[in-house]
Specification:
Chain lengths: 200, 200, 200, 200
DNA sequence: AATGAATGAGGGTTCATTCAT
DNA sequence: AATGAATGAACCCTCATTCAT
């Protein structure tokens, strides 16, 4: 009952993705992954060295694309300068362009990294990204000589940005919907933050 | 080597709370909880009937307070009418008052219920609350004859409200800080949503 | 160090049968069963879903054969009419024929069901059979207008019939010996009861 | 909340007797015994050194009475000579007298010893008694130059005598009922055996 | 390429027993 | 006399992983 090599491997990858998303890395059961993929435990280890290797393969490509995206396009910086533009309509134009760059790098792989990676070497990725967002936000607060918003709240806001994006990616597969909802979300988010720190 | 009864029980409760928050109900290990509490597995079962009973004790009181709070104070409704008031300064006054009622009912117990209860009878509480928020939000969208924001986005927004509150409760223990941050967060949240749906 | 699949499974079945017979279902220890079978706990669960599944496999076949035997051959009724035949020698002929039908359905599986099944879904089977025997016996007592033997004693007698059969099945594996002993036992039993109620 | 010493001890004895009869020595739970007796685990060990000591106390007296009864009255021998008397009516007279001696020595304590003692030092008592009965029975078979009944069947018969008595003692508490039923049972039993070996 | 037998650590839980109070 | 906190071994069961076939 042999099957073309790639078919089996893809079946396992797909089944693994589903299981990791549902249960998280640690609670995911290899027994269930292989059953769902229509093969056996033993055969799993012909394709993947171990549980983490499966996760790795699901995540690796998007992770490196994401890293190089940050490094080359300086992505996480750019949203900053949106804050200097007081015109939500203009935001949309700029955001739309930004989305074209971002969307391909934010897929299910990133959801796994950010939301299901506890127990793997990717554990903590979300926190690192949140840290970056938080630092930018604090810079702004200081630039604006803010006194009302405590610095600790910057972290709350940063977490919400990250979580909001993850929420959208988890709930919607279609890149178009993702794109639309992320744009709405960033708009919502910037209106909130700018209103809060008095920029609007 | 016996210790005053309450000391041990509190040590287990505290250790359990930590473990449940970190790992969630299912992955939490009784062996680790008791080690951290400085006792043995056998002794755990002198204090609690089983794993779920420990969770229950950490959660029960706040849960019932929360339920009766919803039923008697009609809490979840009230934020709604904030949306009819276009004055962020006025919001603060109303919110401040609301906080006095809410804060005592939103503690670590609620975080456990909302964020760590998979595998217990409280599983799904967060989803129920999100559903309620979502429905209110959709009502508003319809009242405003909105065309730009897709209804599916209401769920994203509702999730963010719930997650934001959980984030704050998880990161801060001090009721004063919680109060302040939740007020900031709701303000942020309302500015964002009202800006988005054109109410501002 | 792998062994042909069936060998291991049979080793576990055999070891399990022994343990269940000795200790009863509930006190039987899987650790001891697997040690006796020369394997490990983990491996046990490659062969059986759980403790009850092992018991089930030891018992299932004979149980269903027994049930259909009762339903089709009306077995439990037939011994009755023996009581109308006052000739022990004739009994032997009839009994001999009856044995040919019965013996294949009364093996170690039935002993497990009747004598070691507390804690399984077969719990109570012995009591049901005893009840049936008792009712037949009471019928006879009433038919004979008996006054000396209290009705409560019918249950004692019924229990003894069941226990006697179990005793023989437990002590002897060889179907021929079982057949011979059961015939002796039923003869002994009928002589006793008929003498007691005055039929002889 | 102290109670007269004997009351507590008796409560534990009574509760223990019940539990041992229901579950057997090994499955009996001290936690349940003390709960039923209305006291605590700790207090149990003020009255009894351990689980076995409780069993011992429930059983000890009757056991020694029974032993000395056997030794002095040569009880187990006597039923033998009944077999030389071919008159069931006469049996009754003799049996009745025998009962007066026996009944006081066959109570719940003996049931515990014979039926619930696995795991204690009394384990095996039933088998010893059965052995004695069996030997007598074999003697008779040999004396009668029996050829039809296999010697192995003697053990089956011996077991049935013992089990029958235990059945009666377990089901009936009232000494009068016990007496009556045991007499019926021995009559039943002797009719059966004598018929079988051709003595009748 | 595929199977599943085998392992051992760890999961939650129950138990008899000890002993400080 | 009475309490119940503390212990540790044993219970059934699940898991990721290895490896002979």
């Amino acid at each position: 009952m042999q099957v073309k090599k790639d078919e089996m491997k893809n079946a396992i990858l797909k089944s693994g993705e589903k299981e990791f998303l549902e249960k998280g890395y640690e609670k995911a059961s290899i027994r269930k992954i292989v059953k769902q993929a229509g093969t056996t435990i033993g055969n799993f280890y012909n394709y993947f060295a171990n549980k983490e290797a499966l996760f790795e393969e699901l995540v690796n490509e998007e992770y490196h694309e994401f890293i190089s995206f940050i490094q080359h396009h300086n992505t996480v910086e750019r949203p900053d300068y949106l804050w200097d533009i007081p015109n939500p309509t203009l935001w949309r134009t700029i955001l739309s362009e930004l989305m074209d760059d971002m969307i391909p790098h934010f897929g299910t792989g990133m959801v796994l990294i950010l939301d299901s990676s506890k127990g793997t070497k990717y554990e903590g990725s979300k926190e690192k990204i949140i840290e970056i967002i938080k630092d930018h936000f604090i810079e702004h607060l200081e630039k604006l000589n803010n006194k009302d918003i405590p610095l600790g709240f910057a972290e709350v806001i940063a977490i919400q940005l990250a979580e909001g994006l993850i929420t959208i990616l988890k709930k919607y597969d279609d890149p178009k919907v993702r794109r639309e909802y992320i744009m709405h979300y960033i708009t919502f988010y910037m209106l909130g933050t700018m209103g809060l720190i008095g920029g609007l």
